Amino acid sequence: MVKTFFIISLSILLILLLSFVLIEYYNTFYIINNIVIKVGIGIILIFITLVILRYMVLLFFSILKTTIKATEETKKTTNKKVSVIIPAYNEEKVIEKSIQSIINQTYKNIELIVVDDGSTDNTSLVVQKYTYLPFVKLYKKSNEGKAKAINYGIKRASGELIMVVDADSKLQKDAVELMAVYFEDPEIAAVAGSVFVSNQNNIITKLQALEYIEGLNMVRNGQAFLKLVNIIPGPIGMFRKKALYDVGLYDDDTFAEDCDVTLKLIAHGYKIDFESEAIAKTEAPENIFDLIKQRYRWTRGILQAIRKHKKLLWNFKDNMAASFTMWYMLFEAVFWPFMDFWVNVFILYLAITTGISLLIFYWWSLFTILDVAGALYCVLITNESLSIVFYAIFYRLFFIQFINLVKIFSTIEEWFGIKMEWGKLERKGRL
Amino acid sequence: MNLLAFLALIILIITIITLVFGIIAYFLYKAREKHKTKLAKKLIYKDVLDEVGGKYVFFE
User: Fold this and answer.
1) DSSP label at A184?
2) Which residues touch A232 (CB under 8 Å, ≥6 apart)?
3) With A128 labelled, which of A219, A279, A324, A401 sits at a CA distance of 20 to 30 A?
4) Could you tell me where the DSSP H helices lie in A73-174?
5) What ipTM does the predicted assembly reach?
């Protein structure tokens, strides 16, 4: 109760502060006479307004979704069989915890299928320790990539529902139960769960933890109000098997198979929901190079998926939801990183040539206020530690700038079609 | 110098450092990946033998 009161009071204070900074920014715009600078600042203001609107709408939808969920009186139940598929390639360090988390689920109508995608380590040996259980199955195949490994598992699954879990992720014990009930609604084709960082042991992983709860989970909760979640995350996603077959299962022509399959489902008119309390904890990259490697693959994979489904961009008449989702993804993947970089360079130029440096403070504080407000809200609806809010200050100061820079380079490489490889991360075993 | 201007200066410096660091880190990452791929692509006699499908590998 005290925590809730504190967080709500702080949020009101932050909104007031945000308004104050915005007014100051607009005042700066009016006192500048140089036309070039005025146009530049005008573009920044339009962009800020867009971003704030996006943020506020998502936050508002997220609050609505949480409120509606809380007011639902009867607890839904289901008994549909769930086939959990774990595609694994060289995951000996982490897969055991992942398997144990599935064995310990409260939902009992379950089967576990581990597909060893041609591992060269002891992944299979680790899994074999659990094959004495009648619902645990291990399949070994030659290495063909994650998408084909998942399809291999789906074709051998007997469940009506398919759950895909990454080998480096462990589920909370009620995750399957919480997600399976959504499929009582025949329009729902897939449900995403929340992803949390398990190895919060340095500033890089702590900043990613903040990014996961705010940038990913809060956004998904907001999108779920419209039943339009745009990416079912690799660590925790559940699908209706029939819907997956309708869209032709997973494709292996992009490096973001999760994004691609979600887009295919949306393009077919299916609805996709999100369960914030179904939690998967995953191992995040612990150093800069691994972080770059991960984001490089994510960005290029998402761009490949967007390019693959580019027809949907202008398909407002037939499938407005799909077009909206595509434009949203394009904004996140391309427009926003380029704009952020351009603003930083423009403000640096201004500071050097005219001495106006206050703008950079306004730019930073606007987004930091939004980040702190978002982080506070997420802490309120999840069980994440309040201390994580503190990292919001550094989040905008260098983390997001760094991530955006990687996105820009990845976009350029994707544009020129430079060859890429999967970029497997080295596991630390800190699940 | 007032507080806001001072904070703006600090953010400005951090921004410059981040951008420079980001660019360097990215190219270091690319160099590392290139090196790794090169190492992984080293020819192994047995692999070449399997690929050729014969008993010996003949060098021209």
Assistant:
1) G
2) A164, A190, A191, A192, A239, A258, A261, A262, A272
3) A279
4) 95-103, 123-128, 146-155
5) 0.80
Is the model's pTM score more than 0.90?
no
In whole angstroms, give the CA distance from residue A293 to residue A380: 32
Mutate one of B33, B37, B38 to test the A interface: name it (highest A CB count within 10 A): B33
Give the mean pLDDT of A107-111: 92
Contacts of A364 in chain B (CB under 8 A): 11
Q: What span, in angstroms and rounded, lies between the C-alpha atoms of A240 and A137?
A: 20
Q: Note whether A406 contacts B22, CB cutoff 8 Å.
A: yes
Give the residue from A20, A90, A361 with the most B CB atoms within 10 Å of its CB, the best one to mutate: A361
pLDDT value at residue A352: 81
CA A163 to chain centre: 17
Please state the domain extents for chain B.
27-60
> In chain A, positions 263-322, which contact chain B (CB-CB < 8 Å)?
288-289, 292-293, 296
Q: Where are the domains of chain A?
A: 1-75+185-431
Minimal C-alpha gap between A299 and chain B (Å): 14
Which of A44, A74, A36, A51 lies closest to A332 in space, CA to CA?
Answer: A51
The tens digit of pLDDT for each residue in A252-294 reads 888 889 999 999 999 998 999 999 889 999 999 999 999 999 9
Q: How many angstroms separate the CA of residue A184 from the nearest CA in chain B? A: 46
Question: What's the pLDDT at A6?
Answer: 66
Q: Report phi then psi at A223, rounded to 5.
A: -65, -30
Nearest CA in chain B to A352: B12
* Candidates A289, A292, A401; nearest CB to B15: A401
Tokens of A351: 């500071």
Residue of B5, B17, B33 with shortest CB distance to A358: B5
Burial state string for A367-378 with b = 16 or more CB within 10 A and e = fewer than 16: bbbbbbbbbbbb
Angle between helix A336-354 and helix A358-381 axes, rounded to 10 deg: 150
Q: Any CB–CB contact under 8 A between B13 and chain A?
A: no
At residue A198, does pLDDT exceed 80?
yes
Q: What's the CA gap between A48 and A215, in Å, rounded?
A: 17
Query: Mutate which of A364, A393, A410 to disrupt the B interface (most B C-beta within 10 Å)?
Result: A364
User: Among A283, A256, A71, which Cα is nearest to A195's?
Assistant: A283
Contact A66, A276 (CB under 8 A): yes
CB atoms inside a 10 Å sphere around CB A127: 28
